[in-house]
């Protein structure tokens, strides 16, 4: 009888521990924040806290840049016209604006501007995104800058990718 109670308690404890584990997924893929990206992950999330830093990723990784924004002010995050990524980083689609969840009837709330990139080949590229009004020619807002170093996949990384 006592063994049965202990077994039930242990099983319940194991289920609770498993249920409390956090999920670190973006669009169903594993991810971590910018500069902490280990070799196992394929999606690297970059935010304002990475401003001015260098972030290292691997060939084939997806890079997601998320910057807080409030388009109701007229300001928006904008990539410079003609930005190419030098073949190192390739933009996937256009940048998107995702509104924050808000109560019905609330106006003037912000959201996030989101860009997705693919690390295509090894090299370094500087990504500068300006927060400004589209009709103004000068940079009156702020700028976000991050240097992205793309490393070539080595044998160890290829083996890890094959396992997952």
TrEMBL record:
According to the UniProt entry, its GO molecular function terms are:
cysteine-type endopeptidase inhibitor activity
Positions of the Proteinase inhibitor I42 chagasin domain:
59-146
Per the record, a Pfam family?
Inhibitor_I42
What name does UniProt use for this protein? Chagasin family peptidase inhibitor I42
Answer whether the UniProt record assigns the keyword Hydrolase to this protein: no
What domain of life does the UniProt record list for this protein's source?
Bacteria
Q: Which UniProt keywords apply?
A: Protease inhibitor, Thiol protease inhibitor
């Amino acid at each position: 009888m006592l063994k049965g109670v202990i077994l039930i308690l242990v099983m319940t404890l194991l289920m609770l521990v498993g249920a409390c584990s956090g999920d670190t997924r973006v669009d169903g893929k594993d991810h971590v924040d910018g500069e902490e990206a280990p070799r196992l992950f394929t999606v690297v999330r970059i935010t304002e806290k990475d401003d001015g830093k260098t972030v290292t990723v691997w060939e084939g990784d997806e890079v997601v840049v998320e910057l807080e924004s409030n388009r109701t002010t007229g300001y928006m995050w904008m990539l410079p016209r003609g930005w190419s990524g030098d073949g190192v980083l390739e933009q996937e689609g256009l940048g998107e604006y995702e509104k924050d969840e808000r109560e019905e009837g609330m106006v003037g709330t912000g959201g996030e501007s989101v860009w997705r990139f693919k690390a295509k080949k090894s090299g370094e590229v500087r990504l500068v995104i300006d927060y400004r009004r589209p009709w103004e020619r000068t940079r009156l807002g702020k700028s976000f800058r991050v240097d992205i170093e793309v490393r070539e996949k080595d044998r160890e990384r290829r083996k890890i990718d094959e396992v997952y």
